[in-house]
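Protocol step 4 of 6.
Sequence for Threonylcarbamoyl-AMP synthase ([Candida] arabinofermentans NRRL YB-2248) entered exactly as in the expression construct, tag removed. Do not edit the line below.
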Amino acid sequence: MTELSSAASQSFDTKVLKVDPASIAFNEDGTKLTITDPVTQANLEEAAQILTTTNNVVGFPTETVYGLGGSSLNSESVKSIYRAKNRPSDNPLISHVSSIDQLKRKLLSKSQTIPDIYLPLITKFWPGPLTILLPALPDSPISPNVTANQPTFAVRMPSHPIARALIAISDTPLAAPSANASTRPSPTTAQHVYHDLQSRIPLILDGGSCDVGLESTVVDGLCSPPMLLRPGGISLEDIRKAGGAAWEGIVVSKKTAGKLEPVRTPGMKYRHYSPTAKVVLFLNCGDGVDKVHDYIEKLGDQKLRIALLRSKYFKKGIDKQIVVEEELGVTGDEIQRNLFALMRKVDEMGVDYILIEGVDENNEGLAIMNRLSKAASETIVG
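Step 5 output, structure tokens:
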């Protein structure tokens, strides 16, 4: 067995390498990979070599947000993820596979099968932004650092060609949280990753902006009734529709785990998705004119720099102290795609406050409000 090199407190000259998603194709079951662009092939192979011959980690795009990947089978690699992000080690990680075949070969115990309850969801949503919980059996090859010593592990098959190709070339399931410093807004571009993790990781694959913009939906079909542990890129309504009778009674988990409660999935504990500026969330405030103006007036400091992120109903030009306004969009798809990127954009302008118009919790709105409620220091209700 090859001895892997380690980088306990190593500082890196972080490289950003371009890759072309359009040059990558898989066959139907994900077991055969074709890459037509030699530069993309070479850069993917360089990243795969890091993953298979060192304990280091790499940044790469998925359809949801950029991920920070290390081998799910190698505890030292997983520790490198926690170290690079400055992430608490009791926060479990999601493993990513390139195919059902790889899941069975690399992560499941020899006697283990995928529970039937998940099959309609896998058929509909894999590859894609859906994560399922599976039992971590005593002979499971997955690192206990991935599961945070929980009796289950979380896994999904990303649809982004770069993510799948990297996992396939390395033939290594990747534990991969979002590639940001812990508690910061999730990254949707390679530039976001570089901003947070430069010198902490050796390489970032740049495949352009992410399509979905919010992390995957996490479901637990091992309990009865099944549970939605984290809303994300697949809506609760879509889960019910595709899952059939077994998923009609799905229960939505509480947003945050208690201090002494085990964390079953990422995003259930600690401060999340937060810019440096204070985030203030506005709910049911109509056109925003009265509530936003009153809030700014109560701050009583005209030197404060304030940003506003609008969606469906807020008017433009609500208050003269707002130095920058951005449009999140009007549809759920638009808002979830833009949310993290615009939070980062205005935060990097050095504003003191970011005021955000909330949305209703139907369809994509459940995941959007889950993230906003965790980012917000204060909520104003109309």
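Step 6, annotate. Residues 257-261 have pLDDT under 50 and may be disordered.
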